[in-house]
Amino acid sequence: MVSTSLPVVAVDGSLPTPPYRQIVDAVLAGVTSGSLARGDRLPPVRALAAELGVAPGTVARAYKELEAHGTIRTRGRAGTFVAASADARADAAHQAVRRCLDTLLERLGYTPDEAVELVRRDAAARA
After folding, report:
1. At CA 25, angle to CA 24 and CA 29, rounded to 5?
2. What is the Cα–Cα distance from 107 to 16, expressed in whole angstroms?
3. Segment 32-42, tens digit of pLDDT
4. pLDDT confidence of residue 57
5. Are 80 and 73 in contact (CB under 8 A)?
C-alpha cells in the first residue's frame, strides 16, 4: 500500500509538546497501530507542513528523528517511506509510551524515581 497522507495527524499549539514531537508521535502511533505499514509513502516535507500549518523545518526535524530511529527512510526524490516492519511496532510503542510518561512526569514535577516510589506505595496500600 502506498499512502500519501498520514492518518490522524494534527498539531495542537496549545500542548506543551513541541510540534515536531507531535508529528513523530503520530507516525510512531501509526506504525504501532498498523495504520502505517512498511512501504507506505509519507507526504513530502513541504506538503505536510502546509497541511499542518507548521514550518517545513518542523516536519524536516520530525522526519530526521524518525529516520535516525529507523522508522522511516528517505529515498531522495522518490520520497519518504515507512521502513519499520511489524517487528518494530513494539519498539515504536515503547518509545511513544516513554515520551508520554516523560511529559506526564514533567507536568507533575516528579522524577522517575519519585514516580516509581509512589506506584510502589500505592500497590502496597492496595494489597
Report:
1. 120
2. 9
3. 888 888 899 99
4. 97
5. yes
